[in-house]
Write a structure and sequence with these properties.
GO molecular function: channel activity
Protein name: MIP domain-containing protein
Family: Belongs to the MIP/aquaporin (TC 1.A.8) family.
Number of strands: 0
Distance between the termini: 45 Å
Keywords: Membrane, Transmembrane, Transmembrane helix, Transport
CATH superfamily: Glycerol uptake facilitator protein
Main location: membrane
Number of helices: 9
CATH class: Mainly Alpha
Largest sheet: none
CATH topology: Glycerol uptake facilitator protein
Structural class: mainly alpha
Shape: elongated
């Protein structure tokens, strides 16, 4: 959450290759920049993982990456669902000028926290291919890694598609209802 506020104005707070690719698909990010960002995201994850191993003398049994606890299919489905939710929220707060941009970091951060509570015990709640790839490369643990490459990418693309599907207009709620509150507009219509 803090990193979104700290780097959002510089790089758009792109830490997740699946989100970057989805933004490019829906034309919120230039395709020409996608490879540069993905390389930076993966290199950052590998360097961070390597730093953790150096600082804390991490043993094989202390693996800090993500591996499926249940079946690969369970973890894949959970990664798709939680990545869908994450991208849906990101699309709402980062690409829709009707949202309150100052709350973007809180909305995204709370979504990540809730996703971790729900999916963490089964899949590790990665939601980010780079977050899973860095520790896997450094510690050479590749069990179920494909889940964390495919799941978040599928989920974010579906989440971006769903948000863009329901975004019917660029008008704000106030412009559509002629009031600041949807409930007021409903009660006003019922009174007529």
């Amino acid at each position: 959450m803090v990193m979104v506020y700290a780097t959002g104005h510089i790089s758009g707070a792109h830490f997740n290759p699946a989100v970057t690719i989805t933004f490019a698909i829906f034309r919120h990010f230039p395709f020409t920049q996608v490879p540069v960002y993905i390389v930076a995201q993966v290199v950052g994850s590998v360097l961070a993982s390597f730093t953790l191993c150096l600082l804390f003398d991490v043993k094989e049994e202390d693996y800090f990456g993500t591996v499926p606890v249940g079946s690969n299919v369970q973890s894949l489905v959970l990664e798709i669902i939680i990545s869908f939710l994450l991208m849906f929220i990101i699309s709402g707060v980062a690409t829709d000028n009707r949202s309150i941009g100052e709350l973007a970091g809180i909305a995204v951060g709370m979504t990540v926290i809730l996703n971790v509570f729900v999916a963490g015990p089964v899949s590790g709640a990665s939601m980010n291919p780079a977050r899973s790839l860095g520790p896997a490369v450094v510690m050479r643990v590749y069990k179920g890694l494909w889940v964390y490459m495919a799941g978040p990418l599928c989920g974010t693309i579906l989440g971006g598609f769903a948000y863009n599907l329901i975004r019917l207009t660029d008008k704000s709620l106030r412009e559509i209802t002629k009031t600041g509150s949807f409930l007021k507009s409903i009660s006003r219509d019922e009174a007529r």
